[in-house]
Amino acid sequence: MTTDARPLSGKVCIVAGASRGVGRGVAIALGEAGATVVCSARSTRFGGRTEGRRETVEDAAEAAQEAGGRGYPYVCDHTDPRALYEFAAYVTRRFGPPALVACSVWGGAEGFDGARYADGASFGTPFFERSLRGYEVAIQTGAYALLATARAFAPVMIPARRGLIVALGFDAGEGSAGDVYYDLGKAATLRASAAMAAELAPHGLACLHLSPGYVRTERTFSAGLAAQATETPLYAGRAVAALAADPDVARHNGRSLFVADLARSHGFTDADGSQPPRYAPPGATAP
């Protein structure tokens, strides 16, 4: 296999929230590019699983390995700072400082069955008719998890004066994502990535936000919404891999980028060889 086909060979990459969804797609795409992929999440074959779902962090690591890289699982709650510092110490001892940290942690859709959340609210229910718990979860598993993960890994990346942090989220632009809690959770993640970028730049690190479309994840399948989705998790994954392999990625520091735009500028495709365009939510749409 040529260097061009494995541009991330020898690079250590962290994927937070890798057990399913976009995170798993990122892990697989990094494996395609030859990276050493450390997959972290809460769900494991040997303990707890989110909502009892079957997907695990071990599955993601094996998928990255099968794609052509080296995959390693690590069970971690990315809202727990102590667990994150232990994770960063483990990675540094075993592999050295990572070249990439991609954070795809998001629990804002947990409990959603395709029609309603666990509290009985549907997507788009006004905030004054809902429990605040949905907002708390969106913030904690969005911007807080991103910031906590970066806080753990930035100190081990800064001495090398190089590295990339990618926040996987959703950029609704000047519009709304269709649901107040979902929208605020994603907007906070986007804003956090820009603030982190400004403070990391003097140390040689770059941070950016990446926005996929409506992704055909395991959760959308189980909720009966797969037909509405526009792309697979691999599309976003290949965008992350392309950015990680870009020697001039620092030019994007602090920006919010779209997977569809990067597909055209960097020449990658989705799993079926297509290049789905940017996704525009039709008013209110399911997460």
UniProtKB/TrEMBL annotation:
Name of this chain's protein: SDR family oxidoreductase
PANTHER family named in the record: DEHYDROGENASE/REDUCTASE SDR FAMILY MEMBER 1, DEHYDROGENASE_REDUCTASE SDR FAMILY MEMBER 1
Cleaved signal peptide residues: none
Species name: Alsobacter sp. KACC 23698
Region (Disordered): 268-287
InterPro entries hit by this protein: NAD(P)-bd_dom_sf, SDR_fam
